[in-house]
Design a protein that fits this description.
The protein has 115 residues and is an alpha+beta fold. It has one domain (6-107). It has helices at residues 24-35, 37-41, 55-61, 96-107, and strands spanning 6-9, 14-16, 19-21, 44-47, 70-72, 85-87, 90-93. Helix 1 packs parallel to helix 4.
Length: 115
Amino acid sequence: MTERSILFLLPPGFVDQGRREFCPECAEIWGFLHYFPAIKESLDIRYEALAHPRAGLVSLLGEGKWNCPTLVLSEGAPADEAAIKTANGRRYLGSARDIARYFASLYGTPFPRGS
């Protein structure tokens, strides 16, 4: 089986600042994946805890790299998107809009408004 790109998200609800919250950028990506479920099926989706360091991200990208959502690209994934960064020898995208633009370029989905 081929390695899949890994999408790191915060869980849909967590407690912070004494109340239940959610991450708007992670929700944006979940909405996108519900529009395009075939893309969701092509990813390895992992939830990270709210607290830093986020072990799954740090193990792949190194210390200080723990933003969610983050898409860590598989070795063979196309990578001509300008927003792609590199850390610890891995290529990644670290924001919802960058991830959505990457998917639009790769899969032909609509681009996010304002991109």
